[in-house]
């Protein structure tokens, strides 16, 4: 299933024959329960998005949309240019009480998966055992989140300009 059922860990559901898949999760369990943001791009262009916050009794936001092949090509380009496949999360901070982040990518026959704690700022990155690799991850995640927020915002806009 797409949404986490325990400890914020999602199980991937892509098929081995698929050539492209991206999933990102960031979340924590705290005062307001399990709060998280998660999105995935599937090989058929399906974008799934979920944001759960219980702050002030907020409810879970779930959105699904299909993106054009040109959007998937741009997503692949962003990931390829980041060269994230060359990174290794071994020396990155482990998930802790602050939270966890997960990034899973299937691209060009490679399946990579990264797990680390939530990153508050670039200072956290600089103080890690692998500042270059973690910085690469940090900026890629920022780019991916920006793309997803733009796509969701544009697709589900209530009052078009």
Explain how this protein is built.
The protein has helices spanning 69-82, 122-126, 131-155, and strands spanning 20-30, 33-41, 46-52, 61-66, 100-107, 110-116. The chain has a six-stranded antiparallel beta sheet with strand order 4-3-2-1-5-6, with helices on one face. The chain is built from three helices and six strands; from the N terminus they run ββββαββαα. Helix content is 27%, strand content 30%. The longest helix is centred in the C-terminal third of the chain and has 25 residues, at 131-155. It has 161 residues and is an alpha+beta fold. The model is unreliable at 1-16 (pLDDT under 50).
Neighbour order of strands in the largest sheet: 4-3-2-1-5-6
Class by SSE composition: alpha+beta
Shape descriptor reads: globular
User: What kind of assembly state do the chains in view correspond to?
Assistant: single chain
- Count of DSSP-assigned helices: 3
Topology:
Elements: E1 20-30, E2 33-41, E3 46-52, E4 61-66, H1 69-82, E5 100-107, E6 110-116, H2 122-126, H3 131-155
Antiparallel strand pairs: 1-2, 1-5, 2-3, 3-4, 5-6
Quick structural summary:
The chain is built from 3 helices and 6 strands; from the N terminus they run ββββαββαα. With 161 residues, the protein is an alpha+beta fold. The protein has a 6-stranded antiparallel β-sheet with strand order 4-3-2-1-5-6, with helices on one face.
Main attributes of the structure:
161 residues, 6 strands, globular, 6-stranded antiparallel sheet
């Amino acid at each position: 299933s797409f949404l986490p059922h325990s400890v914020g860990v999602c199980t991937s559901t892509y098929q081995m024959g698929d050539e492209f898949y991206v999933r990102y999760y960031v979340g924590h369990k705290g005062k307001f329960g399990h709060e998280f943001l998660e999105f995935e791009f599937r090989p058929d262009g399906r974008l799934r998005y979920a944001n759960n916050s219980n702050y002030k009794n907020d409810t879970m936001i779930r959105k699904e949309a299909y993106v054009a092949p040109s959007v998937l090509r741009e997503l692949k380009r962003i990931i390829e240019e980041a060269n994230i496949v060359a990174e290794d999360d071994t020396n990155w901070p482990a998930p802790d009480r602050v939270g966890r982040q997960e990034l899973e990518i299937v691209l060009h026959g490679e399946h990579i998966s990264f797990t680390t704690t939530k990153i508050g700022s670039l200072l956290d990155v600089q103080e890690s055992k692998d500042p270059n690799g973690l910085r690469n991850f940090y900026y890629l995640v920022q780019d991916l989140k920006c793309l997803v927020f733009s796509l969701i915002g544009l697709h589900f806009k209530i009052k078009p300009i």
